[in-house]
Design goal:
Elements (H helix, E strand, L loop, with lengths): L3 H4 L1 H13 L3 H11 L8 H16 L27 H7 L10 H5 L6 H21 L1
Length: 136
């Protein structure tokens, strides 16, 4: 029994042909899966991280200015400490993160063109937070 009863006669003949050539069904399927253009499920984790980052920036969770319950000094930009941390400030004013050629809409659109800038923002923030912890 090859399970060919379920697939049909043509698949049964294909299995027999592969056995004559000395190949097993397992080898054939593994080669077929490698050739596929789709991204495997285990590799989707990276795209999920990207989607979460995009969502944080788009809904405003990446901005400290939205933390209204905190004091004025706690809502300042984590890089330059001049004014409230908003996406507009990071794009246009902040010296460490400035990207004046793009607008808020271009960075936050759904096609992911602003994703590289968002990654840079996260890396710079992590660096600055590490410096702040070392001073304490």
């Amino acid at each position: 029994m090859y399970g060919a009863e379920i697939w049909g006669w043509r698949e049964y003949e294909e299995i027999e042909r592969m056995k004559e050539m000395g190949r097993s069904m397992k080898e054939e399927l593994s080669v077929r899966d490698i050739v596929k253009d789709e991204v495997p499920k285990y590799r989707e984790r990276e795209s999920i991280k990207k989607k979460r980052m995009m969502a944080r920036f788009r809904c405003g969770n990446a901005e400290k200015e939205n933390n209204f319950w905190r004091g004025e000094t706690d809502r300042r930009c984590r890089v330059c400490w001049r004014e409230g941390e908003t996406i507009e400030h990071m794009l246009e004013v902040c010296e460490g993160l400035r990207k004046s050629e793009d607008s808020r809409e271009e960075v936050l659109n759904e096609d992911g063109s602003g994703l590289e800038w968002m990654k840079e923002v996260w890396k710079i923030r992590e660096l600055w937070q590490g410096v702040g912890k070392q001073k304490e």
